[in-house]
Amino acid sequence: MTNRTYRLRHSAILALAVTIALACISRETPERIDLEVSRVFVTEPVTGERAAMYFSVTNNGDVDDELLAVSTAAAEVAEIHRTEHEGSTMKMVPVDALTVPAGGRVDLAPGGYHVMLLELTQNLFPDDRFDVTLRFRHAGEVVARARVIRYEDVEELVGGAALSDPHNSR
User: In this predicted model, what pLDDT tens digit does every residue of 4-15 receive, in sequence order?
Assistant: First the structure.
């Protein structure tokens, strides 16, 4: 083998190795984002000014996601809250984001996380339906359809007692 042939072979092998290394670096497994929003309901407002919204988010993806905001034409303001107990009283505390773990589920339910719809822009009656937009860090915007229910029917939809731990991993 001549010196020139050796150098060509060596250069070709080196180029092939660099190409394979670059291909491996650029072919990192993409993170799969797959959120499912279900059981979206709003309680019929008692005073007509505000209503509570509940739903479940299942994360079938490979990465944790975060619910950052909620909006709807039915209310001027929508805030994500958690319920805290202080002695015999309960209070709502706004949260900036709600983590939905990869492979898990978060249930927004009475006694835990929920969305408060404030400054309603329309009257809400049982069986009314309207769109809500949920904004997630990775999944972006997800539009869901909410149904208004009577407050007495909440128990039936959440399976009885309010969930004390809204992070129910599957």
Answer: 655 556 555 655
Task: Quick: pLDDT tens for 95-154.
Answer: 999 999 999 999 999 999 999 999 999 999 999 999 999 999 999 999 999 999 997 887
Query: What gap in Å lies between CA 152 and CA 61, rounded to an integer?
Result: 34
Cα 51 → chain centroid = 20
- What 3-state DSSP class applies to 57? strand
Q: What does pLDDT average to over the chain?
A: 83
DSSP 92-132: EEE-S-EEE-TTEEEEE-TTSEEEEEEEESS---TT-EEEE
Do 145 and 133 touch, CB atoms closer than 8 A? Answer: no
Please calculate the CA angle 92-98-101 and round it to the nearest 5 degrees. Answer: 140
Cα(75)–Cα(64) distance, integer angstroms = 28
Q: What single letter denotes the amino acid at residue 67? A: L
Its pTM stands at 0.75
Q: What does the angle CA 157 – CA 164 – CA 78 come to, to the nearest 5 degrees? A: 65
Are 112 and 83 in contact, with CB atoms under 8 Å apart? Answer: yes
Question: Rounded distance, CA 149 to CA 144, Å?
Answer: 16
Phi then psi dihedrals of residue 169, to 5 deg: -75, 145
